[in-house]
Amino acid sequence: MNRLRAYRAIEGINQGQLAEILGISTQMVSAVEGGRRTFSGDLTVLGYAPERFVLPEMSPPLHRHKASTSVAAKGRAQELLRLAGEVFLELRDRTERAPRMTLEKLPPPSQIDEIEELAVEVRYLLQHEESGPIRNLTTTIERAGVCLIPMTALRGIDGLSAWVNGVPVIGVSPSIPGDRFRFTLAHEIAHLLLHIRSTENSEHEANRFAGALLMPQSEFELAMPPYPQMRDLIALKSTWGMAISALVSRAYELDRIDDQRYRALQIQMSKCKWRKNEPGAFPPVYGQLLPQLVEANGGTENVARDLGVNRRHLTELTSWSHLRVA
User: Fold this and answer.
1) CB 19 within 8 A of CB 29
2) Hey, which of 19, 31, 129, 246 has its CA 20 to 30 A from 93?
3) 77-86: pLDDT as tens digits
4) Cα dist. 143→60, 102, 117, 140, 291 in Å?
């Protein structure tokens, strides 16, 4: 993998179109991308400095996405994630008082119940006390040295994460509701810390971890009534910032409600059409760390020039607009 393929993935173009931009043959583009030929063209035409040809190492990205998500969307998201980690690392190291990473890989759970304890441990790594809601999960994660970026106009992708040269990077869709945004962040933290690659159980484990991080089991059991009504769940949502659907799922997995009550609540939510529009909605809290690092180093134009990266691509990494950067 090199910058040519990464550029194509972000731009959504084929080898022929890239060849036209570079003024070389399609066969040459294919050979360079495949590592069969050395690139001797002008990388600055793509907005990148020649030394940016080799890409940084990245762990396999883990996605929170729909089954219908296209291969192209996944590839684009992956390369934006990689670029974010590349830029973030260099800006962090040249910026005074930039947060340093406090998170660390954890041993994968041997059984699902271990995730509850691991989530409490991560609360400490995030420098948050064991009890009480994490009011601003976005800021808490960024203070731990995680790079957050928007995943805009990538249909079907709520979030994804990877390690890029030792930097934990999370991409999240800015168009999802605040409760889902928080859960996605917690879900991706699980992938970063517990998983090396996607497995049959990784999504289930990440969901369980997200619920435990946002609302630890001990507090959940104290707060959840034995026969919860919707008004109880709405009240808990306002306190803990978790979707009603996530609270119902957590009550079920912790045996606070039985199969019958779980199905009844699911039916009630479906009849009320709460799947896409729950009551008690609140806006997501977007990431600020990468944009702040860019501004601290002279703004987008200066950073793009100094680092030798494409200005439009850099802008997309720092813009939490719902619209794709033109």
Assistant:
1) yes
2) 129
3) 999 999 999 9
4) 24, 8, 22, 5, 14
Dist. CA 318–CA 161, nearest whole Å: 16
Mean pLDDT to the nearest integer, 226-233: 91
Does residue 150 sit in helix, strand or coil? strand
The pLDDT score that the predictor gives to residue 64 is 63
R_g (Cα) of the chain, nearest Å: 21
Tokens of 37: 């030929």
Q: E strands of 91-179, at which residues?
A: 147-150, 157-164, 167-172
295 contacts: CB under 8 Å, gap ≥ 6: none
Question: Is residue 13 helix, strand or coil?
Answer: coil
Q: Which helix (H) or strand (E) holds 64?
A: strand 62-65
Retrieve residue 320's tokens: 């939490």
pLDDT digits 0-9 by tens, 61-76: 987 666 677 888 889 9
Q: With left for phi above 0 and alpha for psi between -120 and 50, is residue 95 left, alpha or beta?
A: beta
